Amino acid sequence: MTKLTITRCDTSVSQITPKSGAANIFTTTINPSAFNRKYGTKFSGTGGGSDDAIGKAAPVPKFSGSDPEEVSFTLTLDGTGVVPAAADTTVAAQIDKLRNIAYTYSGDDHEPDAVQIDWGTELKGFQGRLTSLDIDYTLFDPDGAPLRATMKLKFIEALTDAQVALEANNQSPDLTHLVRVVEGDTLPLLCERIYKDVGKYLEIARFNDLDGFARLKPDTLLRFPPMR
Tens digit of pLDDT for each residue in 77-112? Predict the structure, then answer.
């Protein structure tokens, strides 16, 4: 059965690329029995602030962004010789290799290296950074050297600035928009289109120094700044 691999990557401004060579690839001898992928989104205006009044109507949540994806799983390391693929390496050596690939601080990048995780179809090509590594030692030889251990690993999605820009929605209210008015446009309609909030039209009128906005003149350029 295909084994899960964790590969050290090079990170540039535009992309994250797996490195080659045995020293950069950690291969599990025992595949995880399960893994978890976590996705999250953030919404503003969800209440709970100190200014909330008793009886005040609940605010309408507004999407404000997506959390980086997280992946977590547990690996079992064996050094007893029972697992043929691990017969020629110790548990300590396996841990050191994984730590060197995914955890050790890189002096060139001033942070630990990003890694690529490959296993099956659902984890193929996931690129992330190790955020936690918990090790439980469960079996030892007479000298106290570990013969078996479990490692709980958690990774957060790794993206370059260029990848973030490509994935960003260019209609996002977090970006400044320059809009050319066309026949039929109204300020409330444009605010609904950009902010999903008709009520921001007075703020946009002030921002663009508009004296009257009941009728917008076609070909007028209006700026819509980031707003919450």
Answer: 999 989 887 878 999 999 999 999 999 987 776 789
Looking at the DSSP assignment, which residues form a beta bridge with residue 221? Answer: 180
Say how far apart CA 26 and CA 24 lie, in whole Å: 7
Per-residue model confidence as pLDDT tens digits over 185-194: 889 999 888 8
How many structural domains compose the chain?
Answer: 2
Full-model pTM: 0.68
What is residue 59's DSSP assignment?
Answer: P
Under 8 Å between Cβ of 63 and 43: yes
- Whole-angstrom distance, CA of residue 28 vs CA of residue 206: 61
Determine which helix (DSSP H) or strand (DSSP E) holds 92, and give its type and residue range.
Answer: helix 91-98
Residues 159 and 181 occupy one common structural domain:
no
| Residue 195, domain extent | 170-224
Q: Are residues 147 and 58 in the same domain?
A: yes
The angle subtended at Cα 189 by Cα 185 and Cα 194, nearest 5°, is 110
Which among 164, 169, 157, 161 is positioned nearest to 194, based on CA atoms? 169
Which amino acid belongs to residue 184? Answer: G
Q: Do residues 121 and 175 share a domain?
A: no
